[in-house]
């Protein structure tokens, strides 16, 4: 499990596999100087954040092992990130932040 730090005050908890794929997509979009909306549903909660090249982000993983990248999954996520609705992710169950 790992964290996406959106600001010094906000962090979001994701499974390392999901976070690895999100990092790949988010960094790809930001390197192209593209801004987009990222929305995810975690249990009964929906979260949305605006990501732009000037947004300071930190990806922190609990493991030093990088999960394998599924190129088809990355392609689907990139397609969503480029759509008017932005990047969208639905988590099957609520992730419990251990902190």
Task: Name its key features.
99 residues, 34% strand, three-stranded mixed beta sheet
Kindly give the count of domains.
1
Number of helices: 2
As an assembly, this protein is single chain
Largest sheet: 3 strands, antiparallel
Rg is: 13 Å
Mean pLDDT: 90
Distance between the termini: 12 Å
Going by helix content, strand content and strand pairing, the class is alpha+beta
Q: What low-confidence regions span 5 or more consecutive residues with pLDDT below 50?
A: none
Strand content: 25-35%
- Which range best describes the helical content: under 10%, 10-25%, 25-40%, 40-55%, 55-70% or over 70%? 25-40%
* SSE pattern: EEHEEEHE
Strand line-up across the major sheet: 2-1-5
Question: What general form does the structure show?
Answer: globular
- β-strand number: 6
Structure report:
By secondary structure, the protein is an alpha+beta fold. The protein has one domain (2-89). It has helices at 16-31, 71-81, and strands at residues 2-7, 10-14, 36-42, 45-51, 58-61, 87-91. Strands 2-1-5 form a three-stranded antiparallel β-sheet. It has a three-stranded mixed β-sheet with strand order 4-3-6. Helix 1 crosses helix 2 (71-81). The protein is globular, with a radius of gyration of 13 Å.
Give the gist of this structure:
The chain is built from two helices and six strands, in the order ββαβββαβ. By secondary structure, it is α+β, with helices and mostly antiparallel strands.
């Amino acid at each position: 499990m790992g964290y996406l730090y959106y600001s010094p005050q906000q962090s979001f908890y994701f499974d390392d596999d999901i976070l690895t794929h999100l990092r790949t997509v988010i960094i790809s979009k930001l390197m192209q100087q593209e801004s987009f909306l990222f929305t995810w549903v975690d249990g009964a909660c929906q979260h949305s954040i605006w990501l732009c090249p000037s947004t300071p982000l930190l990806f922190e993983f609990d493991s030093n092992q990088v999960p394998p990248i599924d190129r088809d999954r990355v392609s689907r996520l990139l397609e969503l990130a480029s759509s008017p609705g932005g990047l969208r992710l639905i988590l099957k169950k609520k992730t419990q932040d251990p902190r």
